[in-house]
Amino acid sequence: MKKLFLPLCILLLMSGCKKSELDVANSSPAVAADKAVAVAEYEVEAPPAPKEVYQMAPASSISEKSEPVNKSAQPSIAPKKLDTIAKKIIKNGNMKIQVGDIKKAQNQVEDILKKNNAYIQTEQFQNTDLDDNLDLVIRVPHKNFDALINSFSDGVGSVLSKNISSNDVTEEYTDVSIKLANKKIYIEKYRDMLRSASTTKDMIEIQETIRELEDEIDIAEGRLRFIDDRVNYSTLNLSLYKEKVRSSATSKIGFGSRFADSITEGWNSFMSFLLGIISLWPFMLLIPIIIFLWRKWKSGRSK
Q1: CATH for 111
Q2: What mean pLDDT value characterizes the chain?
Q3: pLDDT score, position 197
Q4: Considering the domain boundaries, does residue 151 fall inside one?
């Protein structure tokens, strides 16, 4: 009996497991699908949506799309900082030297100029009865300016006058350089605005602003070039002076020449006096009239 009971229990357990499997298989497809979706949602989670990043547009881009360009409202930029600018010193000088021979002194000057890498910018010669004058405007590298002055003072002649001046233009040069750099930044921004301009009016206004900036940039660059030229090459105004020594043998200033000059001057004075009297002829016409009236008045009074 016991031997039959044990197999019967095992058979009942196996039939119960098969029934549960059949129930699951025979369940509705919709329920099974919902369970599958639920499992899938649980196992695979969708990645979070990326966060949107908002960034403020530059003021220039807003203005060029939303409203007409205002010429007075320039793009906002930070002032550009320049590297430290070296000292800018302009040296100028004036010298007047008395020499014994203009030609010889001129040759000495040319030798001195070659040694100091200088050159003559302008030259003017004047010959009078009393003296000879050779005026030179000399440009010399800044570093050779003092050596050039000393060479002229020592070996050419007697220095009658000398005036040396130095002008520090570092502040002006720095100011112009900073303004120039900022204007170049402005003009690039305006060119970007021109490429994205949407109306003809905006394009015309931006082009006019660019033209004005280009003119200002040209002026600033020209000023910087002028300062650099004056700094790199100093200017010296040199005057070579020779006084003429006059004698009776060479210049005919003896007694005879002076006597002839006196006669000539006397004759010229007489002619000037005579011509002066002749120039008064309208007043001379009044003299006969005055005499006639005076006599008539006198005769009438006597009667």
Answers
A1: 3.30.70
A2: 74
A3: 85
A4: yes
3-state secondary structure labels for all residues of the chain: CHHHHHHHHHHHHHHHHHHHHHHHHCCCHHHHHHHHHHHHHHHCCCCCCCCCCCCCCCHHHHHHHHCCCCCCCCCCCCCCCCCCCCCCEEEEEEEEEECCCHHHHHHHHHHHHHHCCCEEEEEEEEECCCEEEEEEEEEEEHHHHHHHHHHHHHHCCEEEEEEEEEEECHHHHHHHHHHHHHHHHHHHHHHHHHHCCCCHHHHHHHHHHHHHHHHHHHHHHHHHHHHHHHHHEEEEEEEEEEECCCCHHHHCCCHHHHHHHHHHHHHHHHHHHHHHHHCCHHHHCHHHHHHHHHHHHHHHHHC
pTM: 0.51
The residue assigned the tokens 């302008």 is 122
- Structural domains counted in the chain: 2
Q: Per residue in 171-180, pLDDT tens? A: 999 999 999 9
Interatomic CA distance for residues 140 and 212, integer angstroms: 37
Q: Which of 231, 248, 263 is the endpoint of a domain?
A: 231
What is the structure's pLDDT at 87?
Answer: 86
Would you place residue 43 in the very low, low, confident or very high pLDDT band (cuts 50, 70, 90)? very low
Structure tokens belonging to residue 151: 């060479």
User: What average pLDDT score do residues 225-251 get?
Assistant: 80
Q: How far apart (Å, rounded) are the C-alpha atoms in residues 107 and 29?
A: 120
- Residue 193 is part of which domain span? 171-231
Tell me phi and psi for residue 83, to 5 degrees. -65, 160
Q: For residue 236, is it within any domain?
A: no
Q: For residue 47, is it within any domain?
A: no
Question: Looking at residue 25, what is its pLDDT?
Answer: 42
